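Re: the pair you flagged

First of the two:
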Amino acid sequence: MHTTVTLLADVPAQLLPAQLLPARQLMAFTLASHIILVPLGVALPLITLVMHHRGLRRNDPVALLLARRWSAVMAVQFAVGVVTGTVLSFEFGLLWPGLMGTWGGVFGIGFGVEAWAFFLEAVLIAIYLYGWRRLKPRTHFLLGLPLPAAALLGAFGILAANSWMNTPQGFTLDADGKPEDVHIWSAIFTPMFGPQYWHFVVAMLITAGYTVAGVYAVGWLRGRRDRYHRLGFTVPFTLAAVFTPVQFLLGDSIARSVFHKQPVKFAATELVWRTDTHVPEYIFGRLHPDGSISGGIKIPQFDSILAGFTPGTKVTGLTSVPADDRPTAAQATIAHWAFDLMVVIGSLLILLALWYGWCWLRQRRLPTSPWFFRGAACAGVASVIAVECGWITAEVGRQPWIVYGHMRIAEAVTPTRPISLWIMLGLVIVVYVFIFGSLLAVLLKMRTGWRLADARRAAGERAEEPEADTPYGPRARVPAGDPPSGGGTGAGPAEDGRP
């Protein structure tokens, strides 16, 4: 709440609807919660299939075991992600009826594509889970290949909608200012769509890779140095490390697109008050309502160089538009800090990736320093924070517009009484705490079961969980006349450990 109050601190209260604060809080909370799950939803299918392919190509039972376990995690987090994503979809209509009522016919197709992709991904996940030990290995793997495409299709839908809100096009306005003559393809492929989409997709892959690898990095630090943990770390970390420098280039590309297509947002992100050349770059720092900047590290002329590769590049300032058409000083500071924190985290991840690449290329082994694995263990959390900062930069920097240049957020908010929205926020917080607590409990229980199975297998005992057996081939048959396992007549499980 403090963040949103700060956002509104330098705006006259009488100019803002009373519903705006709780509506913003509710949307911010649900979006920030949902985005924690998005990286695994978008990128874990691809990481799982990479491990699955390795297991099939090399006839590697450890790789197949990891792929099967990751597919179970994928299903659990997808179920929770569908719930939190559906809540967000409803909130667009409930909290921002002005937006959907006026502009839904222009950009709403993106939400339709996302919903369709959700259903398709659910079906594909179910088929993939069912296929273990029931389908031929090659058939099972091929049926899993559409999963990453379905995940990317969902990202396509939501990024198409968001990029349109940043650079709206594909329509004309009638005499009353209402959109008409909608061109769907133009509304989908806006100037910001390409930079936003690829920046987002690569961010999801990096975040999922570092998150999965971080789990095994923790195990490595705790002395679990077996091949299971080595392979579980190496495959996702390698994917993330390869794409980390690519993401840095994509981040530069999207910043340059914002500079050209949304100059006022760029000014807010970089704390540029007046239009000028030879503009300095501030690392952190705070913008005041009078245009002065306190704190931070000032690098002379560097912002102009970053924007146009020369110190003489002219950078548009916040004062180029009226005060009610630009972010406030507090909003600009928040967007600036979020952007800088994202860049700092990205820079540290590049150093971690270079460390890993240097050791692997020179010695064909993992780094031996525990500090590397400590960094790897933190990389997943840091990546999630960077993703959150990216959305804060994009959304806060766009203020006060919900549709850039056409509709302000205050014009789109619901007329529902503020007290009702505060109550709704409280209920959503309670429900989400339960949902995420349940998700954590399920994942921990799965981990415990897998560890017990591994311990039994290491001791030469028969493990009863399905992953102890080969993931393909027919199930063992129960001898004729014998009751099912656990039937109460003394009959035990089948010889291979499966009931």
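Second of the two:
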Amino acid sequence: MTSLFIVPESKLSVDATHYVRELSTQTLFNHLMRTYAFGYMIAQKNDLNIDMELLYLGAIMHDLGLTEPFADRERTFEIEGGEAACHFLVQHGYPIEKAEIVQKAVELHATVEAEKTNLRLLWYI
């Protein structure tokens, strides 16, 4: 049986997965993986030229602000999560330009503009 989606296997993707898995409940982690799977399948179905690692990192980290170290702060979970994701990625050697794309996608993911804006942020067409 072939897989419906491929998870990036870079060291950064593996490290991010472990980090998020440690902080998340199983239910939240499953939600994050489904988010990536749907994004992956949409990209494949529409033959989009997307940086799949960037898509993966944005999806797997999009609810980081709901996890214990970042929840219940003064700012919204989207802002806390976006900042935490950007910090993690930069600390692990990801280019700041790409880390900021993930940060912006996380910050906007629960807004009305998310559908239009996040697709533009994550596409390299």
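The chain has a mean pLDDT of 87.

-B.
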